From TrEMBL:
It holds the Pfam family ADH_zinc_N. Residues 1-22 are annotated as: Disordered. It comes from Nocardioides albus. Its EC number is 1.6.5.5. GO terms for molecular function: mRNA 3'-UTR binding; NADPH binding; quinone reductase (NADPH) activity. Keywords: NADP, Oxidoreductase. SUPFAM superfamilies: GroES-like, NAD(P)-binding Rossmann-fold domains. This is NADPH2:quinone reductase. Residues 10-333 form the Enoyl reductase (ER) domain. One of its GO terms (cellular component) is cytosol. SMART domains: PKS_ER. It comes from the Bacteria.
Length: 336
């Protein structure tokens, strides 16, 4: 099989295309023939050594993907050969990821792809959708399902980003009123396609005042991508006993705040790193995301506000560069 690998941390030029034997699934594993692989910021950061150093002689990048079950390991009763699946956290805990024609994964990381869902959508779930799920369930609601957020107002920063888009779609499906912030009319159009009810361009006027006009009693929960930049705004617009769920550090690595003024709000700050959350939360995210896909609530392409950027396997370095440069939408690697 063809696979992309790297043997040292560094720039995308460390990636190379090579031939490897098709792996065999071990006990509790399935072998998946990949049709699409998703590329996330975590992929290039791992490769570059920003999220840990290389611990194996050779690594295939890629956490997310979608394809078809080709073989089943001993003890697996949850899958059948020929079953379409979407993959999550593939490279976590092993040296081989989804930038390859085949990959073996623990069966629990290969989730049935609902009928009529495309492989493009399946490969775009994983990190973005599951991170969005954890952000949304960091407050008073433990599961994302129809009407579970009824009566709540959610503020999603960066609504045109992958996690922000998924958070909008999931929250709207769950019955929330969703406000999102964007930086341009083009990104506003993407957030609208995702289903956001109110869109605030933070580069045009006072974003806090605009959000307060929409939600005078405050927003119940915030999905935050840039806490160092937005914390003053967040504390201004959030309702008492609200939750600020932080999943990235865009705009700065240091967060400071006035403690007394923050005490009075009784806020919860929930920091999120997908690879460290509890297994029960991972299972809940996989189940709820799949339910949302089945319901048609998670979408990619123009109808979902997620532009798709396709690369061939031999162009994986360019795909990594595109994500590192901030490509808007979803970068995918085509494997057939």
């Amino acid at each position: 099989m063809r696979a992309v690998v790297y043997s040292e941390n560094g720039p995308s030029s460390t990636l190379r295309l090579t031939e490897r034997p098709v792996p065999k699934p071990g006990p509790g594993e399935v072998l998946v023939r990949l049709v699409r692989a998703g590329v996330n910021p975590t992929d290039w950061k791992l490769r570059a050594g920003l999220s840990g150093t290389l611990s194996d002689p050779e690594v295939t990048p890629g956490q997310d993907g979608a394809g078809v079950v080709e073989a089943i390991g001993e003890g697996v009763s949850t899958h059948v050969v020929g079953q379409p699946v979407w993959l999550f956290m593939t490279q976590h805990g092993q040296a081989w990821g989804t930038a390859a024609e085949y990959v073996t994964v623990p069966a629990r990381k290969a989730v049935e792809l609902p009928a009529d869902a495309s492989f493009d959508l399946g490969a775009a779930l994983g990190v973005p959708a599951m991170t969005a799920h954890r952000a949304l369930t960091s407050g008073t609601v433990e599961r994302v399902a129809p009407e579970s957020f009824s009566g709540l107002t959610i503020l999603v920063h960066g609504g045109a980003g992958a996690v922000g888009n998924a958070a909008i779609q999931l929250a709207v499906w769950a019955g929330a009123r969703v406000i999102t912030t964007v930086s341009s009319p083009e990104k506003a159009a993407l957030a609208k396609a995702a289903g956001a009810h109110h869109i605030v361009n933070y580069r045009e006027g006072d974003a806090a005042a605009a959000i307060q006009e929409i939600a005078p009693d405050g927003v119940d929960q915030i999905v935050e991508v840039a806490p160092a930049v937005n914390n003053d705004l967040d504390r201004t617009v959030i309702a008492k006993r609200g939750t600020i769920a932080i999943y990235a550090n865009n705009g700065g690595d240091e967060l400071t705040m006035p403690l007394r003024a923050t005490f009075s709000l009784n806020l919860r700050y929930q920091f999120i790193q997908l690879y460290g959350i509890e297994e029960t939360q991972i299972r809940a995210a996989a189940e709820d995301v799949t339910a949302a896909v089945t319901a048609g609530a998670l979408r990619v392409g123009p109808e979902g506000g997620v532009p798709l950027h396709h690369y061939r396997l031999e162009e994986t370095a360019a795909a990594h560069d595109a994500v590192e440069a901030g490509a808007v939408g979803k970068v995918l690697i085509d494997l057939e």
